[in-house]
Hints:
Elements: H1 35-38, E1 41-44, E2 51-52, E3 55-56, H2 60-69, E4 73-78, H3 85-94, E5 104-106, H4 107-118, E6 124-128, H5 131-139, E7 143-145, E8 154-157, H6 165-176, E9 180-183, E10 189-190, E11 197-198, H7 200-211, E12 216-217, H8 223-233, E13 238-242, H9 245-255, E14 258-262, H10 269-273, E15 283-285, E16 301-303, E17 306-311, E18 314-319, E19 322-327, H11 337-354, E20 361-364, H12 366-373, E21 382-383
Parallel strand pairs: 1-4, 1-13, 4-5, 6-7, 6-8, 8-9, 9-12, 13-14, 14-15, 19-20
Antiparallel strand pairs: 2-3, 10-11, 16-17, 17-18, 18-19, 20-21
Helix pairs in contact: 4-5, 4-8, 6-7, 11-12
Amino acid sequence: xxxxxxxxxxxxxxxxxxxxxxxxxxxxxxxxxxxxxxxxxxxxxxxxxxxxxxxxxxxxxxxxxxxxxxxxxxxxxxxxxxxxxxxxxxxxxxxxxxxxxxxxxxxxxxxxxxxxxxxxxxxxxxxxxxxxxxxxxxxxxxxxxxxxxxxxxxxxxxxxxxxxxxxxxxxxxxxxxxxxxxxxxxxxxxxxxxxxxxxxxxxxxxxxxxxxxxxxxxxxxxxxxxxxxxxxxxxxxxxxxxxxxxxxxxxxxxxxxxxxxxxxxxxxxxxxxxxxxxxxxxxxxxxxxxxxxxxxxxxxxxxxxxxxxxxxxxxxxxxxxxxxxxxxxxxxxxxxxxxxxxxxxxxxxxxxxxxxxxxxxxxxxxxxxxxxxxxxxxxxxxxxx
Length: 385
C-alpha cells in the first residue's frame, strides 16, 4: 500500500524503544509517550482485537480514532485468506472503524508474494481457496489453474469453507509431483458461533498426509506476511498489535518489530505467565486504549534466590517455584492497576523461567486475586503444572 502523505507531526517521530530481532528477555518495554505517538504504524490483528466474532470490541473504534489523532497510521493484518481486502474493509466500516481496501493486508497477498519471488512470470499455480486468493495470485503475474493436469509449478492453499475432497485431491497430486506448495496460513481452527471449526491448517494436514510433504507458510507467525505489511505501509517503526502469542507476537518477534498484546481475545493471564521467550510481548494492555498511554518499563531484580518485580503499586516475587503478588508501598497505584498487577507477575515468572527455576504455583491474597480476576484469571491462584 502507498503510504499517505505525512504531516509535520509525522516527519520526525520520536525514536521508539527498539526490540531485539529474535527473542524477548524477561521484561516489558517502557515508553514515556503514548505508543501511538512513538510508533508510526500499527499493524493490527482483527478477530480478538477489533471484534469478537460478529461483535465489535467496545473500546476499539474510539481508541483507533484517537490513535490516528496522535499521528499513528493503521493497517489491518489478517491470516484469513478467504476474504478480499475490500470485503475486510467493508466489515470494519460497518463496525465503526473507517478503512479502505488499501489499509488491509491479507495472508493471500503474502502467499502471492512468496509465489512471485520463487516462480517465473506466467507460471501455472493450482489455487485451492476462494476467489480472493485467485485474484491475488493473478495480480502478481501468475496463471491460475484448477487441476494438477497442466503440471502446475506450484500449489497455493488458503482457507475456503467450500473446499471439496476433489480440490484437495488435485492439490495432493500436484504436490506429490514436486510442485512448490505454499499455504496462506496454518491456523488449525477458525472461530464460529458454534465454537471452533477446522481452519486452513486442518485442510493443509489432509494434503500433507496424502503427499508426505509440508508447505511453505506465508501467514503469521512466518515473516512473509509481516514483510508484506511493512512494505505496503512504508512503516519505519511498526507496532504489531494482537491477541495471540503464537501468531501475532511470535510473528512480531520474527519480524524484528515491537508488539502490544491486548487482553480482549484469545490470550489470558495464565498463558502469559508461561510465554516462551519468542512469544513475549513488549507491551501489555487491557485493550486498544493501550495505544493512547505511556508505558512503564517493567524489569526484574534479584531478591535472594528469586526475582522481584515492581510496577504501579504492585510487587511480585518468584522464588522456589512460587509466585506471589502483593501491594507495594514504593509507588502509587495507577488507574488501571489490574494490568500493572499482571505486568509484574508476568515479568517475575519469565525471569524465573529464564533462570531455570520456573514457577509452578501462584499464591495471591484477596486483593491480588481480585485484580487479576478482572482480567480473566479466575483460576489464579493454583498449580500451573
